[in-house]
Amino acid sequence: MRLVKRSEGDDELAQSVGTRPEIPRQQFLKLLTTASKAVRIALEAAHPDNASAIRHAVADVASAIQAKAAAASHDYAAALVLVESLRASGRLSEGDVEVFARAGKFEETAVALAMLTALPIDMIERAMVQDREETVLIVAKANGLAWATVKAVLLLCADKGGMSAQALEQCRTVFNKLKRETAQQVIAFQQKRRANLLPGD
Description:
Blueprint: H1 2-6, H2 11-18, H3 25-46, H4 51-72, H5 74-88, H6 94-102, H7 106-117, H8 121-129, H9 134-142, H10 147-157, H11 165-177, H12 180-197
Helix pairs in contact: 2-3, 3-4, 5-7, 6-7, 6-10, 7-8, 9-12
């Protein structure tokens, strides 16, 4: 976790940390997010006229790396099997998301959230590793999740650093004020934009 934080803005260190086989998936995704951001900022500064195309290209590359890492991850594969078995037997529920999150199980939480919300796993994972909590709040509100579940997911996303009581209260206030219809519109917009970025579209 410390190495991932130190590698922000240091592409050489980010590459070194990212290739370590023992790096937990949650930290790998955070590394990917910050490295992608650093690359994007550098490219946009060099080519301001092509900023939009650069953002899309970097996002595509990040998604491809994320998908490849998921395919090679034993933890992710095990989480997928477990959660899929719960869904197949009709037992997957919001309660499972909260239990997984409270147990610190990043992969299981992400997969369960993706299956419950019918959203792509890479979208859920990126929401969970971003520094800003708004995306998690939007996904949760759009799908009618309870605050107890959202709180457990936020604490998992915060990792070992945790979240202050004040930060959690701010998130709760935003979550309570956010209208479900508005959250659903944001998700629909993101899905439409994602579909437009798919090859061949």
